[in-house]
Backbone:
């Protein structure tokens, strides 16, 4: 570029190119996509890419710090022949089903109780949400001590209340360990259910209850024919959320039992973690994690479509 | 819904169940506090009535703050949660504003993708993510979690903000456009200042989610100087079969307090955010 072409070129850019560019970025579709591209690129790089890469990993035999070899569906066939894998499948379904049911029933109960008028209601609501906002690992530490084999406070109460000669080992017995995990998960998730359902209850117009009462409906009838049908969409969404995040739970099991005793409480996430991080078999671990996908995908797509429509 | 019936009915319907739920919800926190104040000889003596503290001591707190890196973990947790929340709010706005306000080709697909990303649970991604972070040379750096936490928070913030944005009337923006403001000016100078409550809701929620994160921190951060509170407590206050129960409880309580304080200031915003997705 010669020395005096510059003073001629710059005003030309200012006069013609910049306004054109400005007009272009003012277009609704262009502006939208320019806005969306950076976060989209970020999410594709750190969610989309790892997801696809995880599928690739699951098709490889890949011991830690070594190059992988492609083995097709070999990892999945190993999973299906592994009795522990089937135990994990069963554990995950029991855990998810029982915890979700307890949260739903308990949450609805608490929401109905909270839907009455009483003093300091907002304070009570705030306090009841504490289990949900405190970091899970930290509150689980308290539960670990509550369920401790030698110093469990529940056992102390059982023994000194004259209910049992000696308390059970809550986390040492397979069935009790699973039951304990379900209770702790319920403890943490129930407030979310209750507060959301309470918000749903408060959107039901009181006139409906008055009309039903005038028509001679009993309290039970009003619950069945007014409350439940109107609460259904909220129950649906909360239940889907709860199913997705209970099904893929990791923290609680990792802290309380590490999947023991004898794999009785391993879930997909903790088992995949054990194989990949402790066992160093990334490919096999990725295949266990991906085995979660079919049921999860159904839930995720159903809920994502529902949320988008609403 | 006021019904006839005396105090017995009210006790059965309200106070009894409410009392049960309150005890159930709060007992673990009471237990944290009580345990953290007990001297070891009381803590490990099955003959002592455990429900109250007989000889309170601050020894476990002193040990926790003096002998472990708890303060470093707290600083790391706060830093990571704050930065990733800020990143997520910015990116969340960039997604939510066009989705809430504009018509453009592909908007249906983008909003579905955001909802789906919100719901993809971490355990599906952590194994490939561990390798990616390793390959990028980010193992044992706070950058690794600052970079990955927003993947959990952005879709959530975008979703919540979208709902909030839709509830703000359009007239002011239309007026600004007619007065010749550009789209960017309209967004920054007219629209976003109206949305402070939405930002507080999304910010508080994202902040508590970031404080709660455990899996990525557990995998990426193995050095004590970069650990967050949950990972530090689990990895360093439990050594093999030895549990430092007093210190564990002190750490659990101290680690919960910042979240609880911030939450208590913004309960209404938090509840609004919590229920925004489901009720409307």
Residues:
């Amino acid at each position: 570029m010669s020395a005096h072409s510059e003073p001629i070129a710059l005003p030309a850019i200012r006069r013609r190119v910049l306004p054109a560019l400005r007009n272009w970025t003012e277009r609704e579709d262009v502006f939208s996509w320019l806005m969306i591209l950076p976060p989209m690129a970020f999410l594709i790089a750190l969610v989309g890419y790892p997801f696809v890469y995880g599928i690739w990993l699951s098709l490889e035999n890949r011991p830690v710090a070594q190059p992988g070899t492609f083995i097709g569906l070999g990892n999945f066939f190993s999973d299906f022949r592994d009795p522990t894998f089937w135990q994990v499948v069963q554990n995950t379904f029991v855990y998810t089903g029982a915890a979700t049911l307890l949260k739903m029933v308990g949450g609805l109960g608490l929401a109905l109780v909270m839907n009455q008028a009483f003093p300091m209601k907002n304070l009570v609501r705030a306090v009841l949400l504490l289990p949900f906002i405190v970091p899970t690992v930290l509150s689980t530490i308290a539960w670990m001590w509550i369920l401790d084999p030698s110093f469990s406070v529940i056992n102390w109460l059982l023994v000194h209340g004259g209910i049992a000669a000696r308390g059970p080992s809550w986390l040492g017995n397979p069935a009790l360990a699973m039951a304990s995990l379900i209770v702790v998960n319920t403890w943490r998730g129930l407030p979310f259910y209750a507060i959301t359902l309470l918000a749903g209850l408060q959107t039901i117009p009181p006139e409906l209850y008055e009309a039903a009462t005038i028509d001679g409906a009993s309290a039970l009838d009003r619950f069945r024919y007014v409350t439940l049908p109107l609460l259904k969409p909220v129950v649906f969404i909360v239940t889907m959320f709860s199913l997705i995040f209970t099904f893929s739970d990791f923290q609680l099991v990792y802290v309380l039992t590490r999947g023991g005793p004898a794999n009785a409480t391993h879930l997909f996430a903790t088992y995949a973690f054990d194989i990949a991080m402790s066992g160093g078999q990334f490919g096999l671990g990725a295949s266990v994690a991906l085995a979660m996908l079919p049921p999860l995908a159904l839930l995720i797509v159903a809920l994502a479509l529902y949320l988008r429509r609403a | 819904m006021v019904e006839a019936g005396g105090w017995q009915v009210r006790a059965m319907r309200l106070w009894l169940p409410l009392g049960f739920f309150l005890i159930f919800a709060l007992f673990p926190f009471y237990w944290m506090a009580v345990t953290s104040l007990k001297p070891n000889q009381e803590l490990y003596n099955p003959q002592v009535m455990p429900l109250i503290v007989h000889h309170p001591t601050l020894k476990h707190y002193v040990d926790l703050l003096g002998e472990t890196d708890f303060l470093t973990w707290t600083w790391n947790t706060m830093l990571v949660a704050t930065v990733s929340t800020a990143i997520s709010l910015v990116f969340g706005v960039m997604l939510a504003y066009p989705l809430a306000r504009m018509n453009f080709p592909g908007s249906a697909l983008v909003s579905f993708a955001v909802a789906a990303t919100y719901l993809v649970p971490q355990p599906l991604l952590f194994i490939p993510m561990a390798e990616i972070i390793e390959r990028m040379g980010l193992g044992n750096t706070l950058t690794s979690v600052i970079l990955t936490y927003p993947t959990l928070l952005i879709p959530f913030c975008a979703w919540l903000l979208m709902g909030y944005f839709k509830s703000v009337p359009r007239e002011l923006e239309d007026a600004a456009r007619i007065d010749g403001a550009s789209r960017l000016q309209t967004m920054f100078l007219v629209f976003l200042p109206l949305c402070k409550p939405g930002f507080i809701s999304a910010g508080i929620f994202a902040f508590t989610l970031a404080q709660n994160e455990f899996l990525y921190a557990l995998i990426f951060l193995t050095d004590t100087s970069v650990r967050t509170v949950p990972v530090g407590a689990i990895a360093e206050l439990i050594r093999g079969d030895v549990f430092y129960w007093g210190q564990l409880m002190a750490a659990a309580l101290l680690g919960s307090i910042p979240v609880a304080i911030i939450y208590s200031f913004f309960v209404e915003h938090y509840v609004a955010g919590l229920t925004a997705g489901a009720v409307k």
About this structure: The radius of gyration of chain A is 28 Å. Residues 272 and 288 of chain A are 5 Å apart (CA to CA). Strands of chain A lie at 60-61, 69-70.
